[in-house]
Design brief:
Blueprint: E1 34-37, E2 42-45, H1 49-69, E3 79-84, H2 88-91, E4 109-114, E5 117-122, H3 129-144, H4 153-163, E6 167-169, E7 172-175, H5 180-187, H6 194-199, H7 210-229, H8 238-245, H9 251-259, H10 263-276, E8 282-285, E9 296-297, H11 300-313, H12 317-330, H13 335-347, H14 351-363, H15 369-383, H16 398-414, H17 419-429, H18 437-449, H19 454-466, H20 470-479, H21 507-533, H22 537-548, H23 554-581, H24 585-595, H25 603-615
Helix pairs in contact: 3-4, 4-7, 5-7, 8-9, 11-12, 11-13, 12-13, 13-14, 13-15, 14-15, 15-16, 15-17, 16-17, 17-18, 17-19, 18-19, 19-20, 20-21, 21-22, 22-23, 23-24, 24-25
């Protein structure tokens, strides 16, 4: 992981703006836009060749340095385009807007991740230190999606902070400089217990408190920095050892084996390290350049498509439209054009146009996974319906659910780490008639890639249930009961629960509970009905007793009570039929009269009893 020599949390927010826009011209198409392709990223630049190549070389050195610390499968990374503007004036129409709809003129660059592609936008002010740290921090997250093993949050954020200080110095590369703001925070605060730090996941309540969140990032940086650079007797490969071992061991056992000490010992080391004032960094010669400096003039359609995607990522809808219109005029029947038209339709809330554009792009063979997901999400939005109280998860018709699943599957084939595709696919999979072996494999792979994502466990639970492994399926859902659905934008507001018993403080916990209850009912009720049909009433009551022992919510408890009453009535009806068959007419008459007074007697049961009395002439006096 590291050669053994001594070798900040910057938050970037992609602002999606829905307020008023000031229309500005697109980036000047008459400028000479250079293009440079590399195996890792593409560059579109209005800067000169020298400056463009210098930035590209440094970014490539950064990726080389990161690749020496963690093993990255670069084939799985989302496509990255670096767009370098000639001036800040040209860059301004593409900058994210603040909550008041104003451009932050201090922004000299940003990194955006939007679906299956990523973009870096820069002006000539790209060397600004804060901009540099933002870009390199986010570039670690971009690269992390190509790491085979799932990364705990503390590791990924700590690594991103350590590498956010990357820079070149003459013939060397340097990274791991101390982040002074973090040291100040760590020295004036109590450290988190390591057990808690290692367990933090995205979406946890900790992130609702700015100070606690800042401390998490600072301490994650401290732990990673200490193992890499501190006076530490353990192996410098401890970080990667922990990642590997934690796949098959508990966090505590993996930690002990990887670092050669328990939590308490490491906490003492970190406390000393934050107060020591002695910190090292990494400095080593640059690697040999792997970039082919073969610049060429960017094709006009590629120029408009890349700028359109950049504008979409920052919510600059007026710029997106300008490029979409230009592309439509240039190549009206290209998949690339319809990809961009679908983006614009999604951004402006035009569902019919979105569906038409996405379907046409797919017909033309698009390779953009985002197009498949835009169509899947729109199909889901239009097809989803409020479920009834007895089947709260049957919100999609099976054919629509299958269409959504297949679109998500195709998106995942194009971009294997497309997390939102897994999430949407999982919810749709609840409503398909048949789960295929291909569906099952998607979620088995997905859970290995994203072990902390609850909706992927939901998908795997559906697979397990369809394979007859109900207990394991329920276990997977129950493990994530507090978190299920917390990330997926497609599910927000999609499910409307009828009974106010489901109006819980944690909305999606209620969803997990409904899944749990429905699956239990759907497993038991057919067996109860089969037992009643076979006149095995003791078995039916035994199954009802098992269900009664389960902690159902109020509405399901009421349903169970009615089912128990129905079983009791059917048992008495069967007794009356036997008595009639054995010509014990008085016994049959007595039983039928008793049935009419039983709890749960409905008009349907009453009519059935009355017909039996009339048919067999069992009324009093007959």
């Amino acid at each position: 992981m590291y050669d053994g020599k001594p070798i900040r949390r910057v938050v970037i927010a992609v602002v999606i703006v829905t307020s008023l826009f000031v229309v500005r011209p697109a980036a000047p198409a008459d400028a000479t836009w250079l293009a440079l392709d590399s195996p890792r990223f593409d560059v579109l630049s209005a800067n000169n060749e020298k400056n463009t190549l210098a930035w590209s070389e440094e970014f490539n050195q950064f990726l080389d340095a990161l690749g020496k610390v963690v093993t990255i499968d670069e084939r799985t990374l989302p496509h990255l385009t670096v767009i370098m503007f000639r001036s800040d004036r040209d860059f301004k129409p593409y900058k994210p807007l603040d909550t008041k709809g104003k451009v932050d003129n201090t922004v000299a660059g940003f990194f955006s991740k939007s679906g299956s592609y990523s973009s870096i936008g820069l002006s000539t002010g790209y060397a600004h230190e804060e901009t540099r740290r933002v870009i390199y921090h986010e570039a670690v997250h971009w690269s992390a999606s190509g790491i085979k093993e799932p990364l705990p949050l503390w590791f990924e954020e700590g690594l991103a902070e350590v590498f956010s200080t990357f820079h070149t110095k003459r013939k060397d590369v340097v990274w791991g400089d101390v982040i002074v703001n973090y040291l100040h925070l760590l020295k004036e605060s109590s450290l988190m217990d390591l057990e808690d730090l290692l367990a933090v996941r995205n979406g946890d309540d900790l992130f609702d408190d700015d100070r606690k969140a800042s401390l998490f990032y600072a301490q994650s940086w401290l732990l990673v920095h200490y193992v890499m650079f501190g006076v530490y007797e353990g192996s410098r490969t401890g970080l990667t050892d922990y990642i590997v071992k934690s796949q098959t061991r508990t966090r505590e056992a993996a930690f002990q084996e990887a670092f050669g000490m328990d939590y308490q010992a490491m906490e003492r080391m970190l406390d000393q390290y934050r107060r020591s004032g002695k910190y090292f960094h990494h400095q080593s010669p640059k690697t040999a350049s792997s970039l082919d400096p073969a610049f060429y003039t960017a094709a006009t359609d590629i120029f408009h498509a890349k700028l359109a995607k950049l504008a979409h990522a920052t919510g600059r809808i007026e710029q997106l439209k300008l490029h979409a219109d230009a592309l439509a005029a240039l190549h009206p029947e290209s998949a690339l054009n319809f990809d961009v038209q679908a983006l614009h339709a999604a951004a402006t809330g035009s569902p019919d146009q979105l569906i038409a554009a996405a379907e046409r792009a797919i017909e033309l063979g698009t390779k953009d996974a985002r197009t498949y997901m835009l169509l899947a999400e729109e199909v889901e939005r239009q097809a989803a319906k409020a479920p009834d109280s007895l089947a709260p998860l049957k919100r999609l018709a099976p054919d629509q659910a299958r269409r959504i699943v297949d679109l998500c599957h195709r998106a995942i084939e194009l971009y294997p780490v497309y997390l939102e595709a897994y999430r949407v696919m999982a919810w749709a999979l609840l409503n398909v008639q048949e789960v295929t072996s291909e569906d099952a494999e998607v979620f088995r792979v997905g859970v290995r890639r994203f072990p902390d994502e609850p909706e992927l466990k939901l998908g795997l639970a559906i697979v397990e249930r369809k394979n007859g492994k109900l207990e394991h399926a329920l276990q997977l859902v129950r493990e994530e009961a507090w978190r299920l659905g917390g990330k997926s934008d497609s599910m927000k507001g999609m499910i409307h629960i009828i009974d106010d018993v489901w109006m819980m403080e944690d909305y999606m916990k209620g969803m997990a509970r409904i899944i749990d209850d429905v699956w239990m009912m759907e497993d038991y009720l057919p067996r109860i009905i089969a037992a009643v049909d076979a006149h095995q009433f003791d078995e039916a009551n035994r199954l009802l007793d098992e269900l009664d022992a389960y902690d159902f919510e109020r509405s399901y408890k009421s349903m169970l009570r009615h089912n128990r009453q129905n079983v009791a009535i059917y048992e008495q009806i069967h007794g009356a039929e036997v008595a009639i068959k054995e010509k014990r007419r008085e016994d049959a008459r007595t039983i039928l009269k008793k049935i009419k007074t039983m709890d749960g007697m409905t008009p349907l049961f009453r009519r059935q009893v009355d017909r039996m009395i009339e048919y067999y002439k069992l009324a009093d006096g007959e």
